[in-house]
């Protein structure tokens, strides 16, 4: 489970540069308290806040409303050092009276979360893509995996989803042949594999299709006026023949079978 989360974080960092965390262990009351403390501070009168105004960006506490940093266009800012708390809390506002306690609790807990996240991100840095993204040629592929690492691309938004390796379970996915046979009702799955530097991974991929030269075509029952044939027929042999030319600029084999009906 830990490994899976590490891989999801690694992936989010690589592909999106961001992610959101739930079940991080910070109590709801602490989060709510910190937001309340900040909100109450900004509601104070100008005189209360302006005590902290300084042009020196290195001050341990600084309140600002103008655009000295070149990026703040319309915001008020209260910036202060926080950890270790005992060094800095003396500089914090005493108004609102709960500020130090509420913001202090949050500062301590968020530091703990940050340390855990950094550890997870560092650990995930070692993971490399072992098998680049592709779809399989046959009707279905069945995987027997020793550990996690397998990832699938979401049909709609092209994001990667880590598939857990459930002990005793077989993973099944759809290949190009089934996309053709179903006349596009089913889509072949784009997938890839991420390596785990600490643990060798074995996966037995059984790809099930027709014999080498037998052609797969759209099922006649699924083709009519409204649903014209969407793919050219092809054989396993033909898909293998195309493999070398597909190496550098990968696209699903089934893309090359699509019948262009735009004219
Ligand atoms: O590493 C895996 O589990 C998947 C292997 C695979 O996608 C393939 O051999 O086509
Ligand atoms: Fe595959």
From TrEMBL:
Cross-referenced InterPro entries: DIOX_N, IPNS-like_FE2OG_OXY, IPNS-like_sf, Oxoglu/Fe-dep_dioxygenase_dom, Plant_2OG-oxidoreductases
SUPFAM superfamilies: Clavaminate synthase-like (SSF51197)
Keyword Amino-acid biosynthesis: no
Domain of life: Eukaryota
Pfam families the record matches: 2OG-FeII_Oxy, DIOX_N
Gene Ontology molecular function: any one: oxidoreductase activity
Keyword Oxidoreductase: yes
Keywords, in A-Z order: Iron, Metal-binding, Oxidoreductase
Sequence ranges assigned to domain Fe2OG dioxygenase in this UniProt record: 111-210
Gene3D superfamilies per UniProt: B-lactam Antibiotic, Isopenicillin N Synthase, Chain (2.60.120.330)
PANTHER family registered for this protein in UniProt: OXOGLUTARATE/IRON-DEPENDENT DIOXYGENASE
Family the entry assigns: Belongs to the iron/ascorbate-dependent oxidoreductase family.
Protein name: Fe2OG dioxygenase domain-containing protein
Source organism: Panicum hallii var. hallii
UniProt lineage: Eukaryota, Viridiplantae, Streptophyta, Embryophyta, Tracheophyta
């Amino acid at each position: 489970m830990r490994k899976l989360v590490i891989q999801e974080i690694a992936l989010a960092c690589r592909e999106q540069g961001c992610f959101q965390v739930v079940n991080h262990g910070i109590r709801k009351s602490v989060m709510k308290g910190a937001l309340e403390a900040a909100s109450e501070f900004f509601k104070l009168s100008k005189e209360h806040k302006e005590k902290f105004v300084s042009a020196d960006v290195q001050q341990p506490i600084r309140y600002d409303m103008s655009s000295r940093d070149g990026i703040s266009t319309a915001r008020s800012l209260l910036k202060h050092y926080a950890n270790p708390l005992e060094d800095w809390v003396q500089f914090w506002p005493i108004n609102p009276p709960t500020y130090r306690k509420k913001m202090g609790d949050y500062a301590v807990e968020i530091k703990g979360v940050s340390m855990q996240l950094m550890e997870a991100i560092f650990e995930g840095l070692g993971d490399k893509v072992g098998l680049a993204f592709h779809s399989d040629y046959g009707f279905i592929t069945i995987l027997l995996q020793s550990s996690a690492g397998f990832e699938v691309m979401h049909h709609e938004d092209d994001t990667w989803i880590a598939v857990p390796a459930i002990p005793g379970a077989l993973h099944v996915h759809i290949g190009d042949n089934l996309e053709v046979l179903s006349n596009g009702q089913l889509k072949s799955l784009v997938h890839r594999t991420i390596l785990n530097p600490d643990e060798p991974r074995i996966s037995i991929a059984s790809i099930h299709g027709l014999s080498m030269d037998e052609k797969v075509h759209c099922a006649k029952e699924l083709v009519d006026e409204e649903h014209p044939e969407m793919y050219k027929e092809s054989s396993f042999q033909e898909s293998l023949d195309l493999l070398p030319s597909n190496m550098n600029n990968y696209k699903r084999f089934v893309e090359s079978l699509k019948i262009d009906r735009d004219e």
